[in-house]
Amino acid sequence: MSLRAYLQKMRGTTHGSPPRVGTQDILWSWLGSFLGIAVLALLGQAYFDSRDLPLMIGSFGASAVLVYGAVRSPLAQPRNLIGGHVLSAVVGVACWKLLHQQPWLAEAVAVATAIAVMHATRTLHPPGGATALIAVIGSPQIHDLGFLYVLMPATIGPAILLVVALLVNNIPQSRRYPEIWF
Questions:
Q1: Can you say how many angstroms the Cα of residue 11 is from the centroid of all Cα atoms in its chain?
Q2: In this structure, are residues 85 and 158 in contact, taking their beta carbons and an 8 Å threshold?
Q3: pTM of the predicted model, to two decimals?
Q4: Residues 6 or more apart whose Cβ sits within 8 Å of residue 26
Q5: CA–CA dist 34, 171 (Å, integer)
Q6: Gyration radius of the chain's alpha carbons
Q7: Degrees (nearest 5) of the Cα angle 51, 41, 178?
Q8: Would you write out the chain's pLDDT as a tens digit for each of its 182 residues?
């Protein structure tokens, strides 16, 4: 491939902005994400924070974008939501335990391996990359969890987001969630 052909690939293939989303979809996306994150935050504050068990991690914000704002995306389906976070958490914790002496390496290996594992298992969920990274760069509280991080927050959090998505995304006739389970 010539340098010119290589550089031309970076121009993209389509013109214009993505299609506009209707007001109704915007409102349902807002409501779903508000309720999903609110339930996680309230449960975390009421039951888990006092036990030093975080229920909320930053990657759940990105999951909310997918499961409430892009409900038909393959990346937003339950298999991807749960599987992506769980597998990435396992990878992230393992990378921290094995490579914490070289944090830069642990970070890179965690994200790259999480992506490879999600691809191999058909559970690609972009926020999973952040879940793996959080296991490595997280606070001492996150590191102290060890593999408990896989359960709390990386399994329970997405499960709560999923329940809210099932309830909210199926209220309007214009929406259906999920498209596929497995």
A1: 28
A2: yes
A3: 0.93
A4: none
A5: 15
A6: 18
A7: 120
A8: 899 989 988 888 877 888 899 999 999 999 999 999 999 999 999 998 888 789 999 999 999 999 999 999 999 999 999 999 999 999 999 999 999 999 999 999 999 999 999 999 999 999 999 999 999 999 999 999 999 999 999 999 999 999 999 999 999 999 999 999 98
